[in-house]
Amino acid sequence: MDELQSQTEREARILARRKRIQERLAALREGDHGGGKEGEKKEEIGKGKQQVIESKRRLMRVKYRTDQDVTSVRVAGDDRENQHRIQEEQTRQDLRAKLLAEAEQSARQNAAVAMRWADLFSIEVPQDLYNEIEAQRQACERIIGSKDKLIGEIKGELKKKDDEFVKTLKRQAEDIDTLLQYMSRQFVEMQNAYKEELDEIENAFLQERSDLLESNRREMQELFDKRSRLEQDFMDRYLAAVEAYQAQLEGHRQMDAEEYHILKIRLETDIQNLEQHLEAMRATYQLNTEKLEYNYRVLKEREKENTQTIESQKKKLSRQRDILSSLKQRYTETDRRYRDENMKLTDEYKRITEQFKDLQSKFRHFELVDTKKYKEVWGMKEADVAALVRQLLQADKVLHDQQLGWDWRPPDDAVFMPVHGDLVPGATGTGTGGVGSGTGGVGPNGEEESDEDAAARAREAELGERLRDGRNWGALGLLCDEAGFLIDIKARNMIERLPKDEQGLVKAEAILRSLGISDGSSFDALLEALSADSNIELRAKGMVAPAGRGMAEEKSDRGGPAVLVHPDEAVRRLKAFVEVYGTGPSRGPGGGGGGMSGPMRVQGALRRAAEREQEFWSRMTHVISDKHTRVWGALEKQLDKYLALLQERAGSLRDVESLQHQNNELRALLNQYLASRINDELQIPPTQII
């Protein structure tokens, strides 16, 4: 946008310059036509000034003619540069469109790969699991291939820009030579014209000077004669005026003597009046002094009374401190009692947690193995990308320091922050976030399964009541407006085909299902998180202890949050809600009272991992700004060094692929050994040790 604006301003300046040139030409033409009228006024203006006007007109014509030759070169160069920049902007827009399209396609492919990992958790056959992982690897290779193809196109475009730069330099050299020829010729012509016109102007002024001297001499003689006559008349009038002024001065002296006598009498009277006023003011000041002394004594008495009041308030303060100490003692006893009760509840919670760990041990085992394999593949790719980005930053630093002489500012260290710094929640062995509903079995007589179905139907009925309650429609509308990205593509397409009066409810149910909301208590917890006075973000950071069920139930009794959070903060509140309730243990009876179920927590963790991966790719693609990329395009020598770095990177990628192929062969051989039937004949098979 800045380049387009600068081009528009440049074209406007060119048009304004052409307009001024046309106006100057019109003025010259009018001056040539008006030469007849000026000829009539030559005698009035003078020969010298007339010659100056004619010389200026001739020099202006010569200068305009030579300026046209010089300007033609510049106008042609500006036109070529304008066309070049328009074409350059079009090329840049096309390249940006390709980059955006590739980024969007890569994001979709990454999302597809990330979503596929969730399906791998349900595969139990090793061969099928290996085939699916191999398909995931091929999908990752296709993503990398598309990026390498785009890099090749950018390299071709850079090579093309280098050729255009060389051609432009040659064309500019030719224009400069032509411009220098025109300028030297203009200088010679203007120098000769100025010399000729100066000679003409000098001759005209010399002729005019001789004529003026002769006319001034005659005029001076006439003025001297006239002055002598005027001096004689002035002396006669002066003597008569002096006699009249002396008579008037004598009359004024007599009048001033009388006025002085009257003024003296008036001033003496004023002095006597002022002395009387001074005596009256002294008496008044003495009275005011006595009043102030009386007020001072009154204030001293009041100060004594205030001192007594302060003493009484201090005694009262000491009594209040005694009361405060007794209240603190009562608080300490109450706090000790509640701490003992909390310890008992904590022991009960630990016992239930240990039971829950035993139920999910199998799930954690497979989850750890799959997560480890995925992170090994991701770690290799992440290390390669980080190395490439560091090479780009090193090249950028070399360009700034050695070639351009600019101050280079390195990016923030957060750019290289690893995506998978910790394991997926629920796979770390803490027993607080695994799948809690995937290992439940059916009893011998089917009574356990029927109880679970009845409990699930009761939770769904409770959630349906919350959705139909009109007091919660405001919060549901906020979810639909700000959290629509949680709905997958299939559900979104299905919602679009529904009538408009049913889309809102179905959309809200889909968002709640994505968040893992399956009963009324978890829905109340979500409403509490969306309220304006919620502390869910502080709880997510570990700064505030969980509020338990009391706050959510209190919100439910009041009919939903009284004041909803601002829409700009809704997504941040939802993220904090998932972190608080998605990774903590299930609350309430049976583990489904208010938290999210195990599969929902795993899906939430995978979704957050996908978001971190997408953010990682975004950071990697934007580590070098567009301005630095354009600077690179102008430096041919640095592009050769960059090409050498790319060739080195290709060799490193081939080594990595070779190592990866060897790792795959070793992994297949290890799986073959582990799946061998001879392991069944051993007393302690290797599978039990691993």
From TrEMBL:
One of its GO terms (cellular component) is axonemal dynein complex. The keyword Hydrolase does not apply. Residues 203-362 form a coiled coil. Residues 26-52, 426-455 are annotated as: Disordered. Residues 26-47 have a biased composition (Basic and acidic residues). Residues 428-444 have a biased composition (Gly residues). Residues 615-674 form the Dynein regulatory complex protein 1 C-terminal domain. PANTHER family: DYNEIN REGULATORY COMPLEX PROTEIN 1 (PTHR21625:SF1), NYD-SP28 PROTEIN (PTHR21625). This is Dynein regulatory complex protein 1.
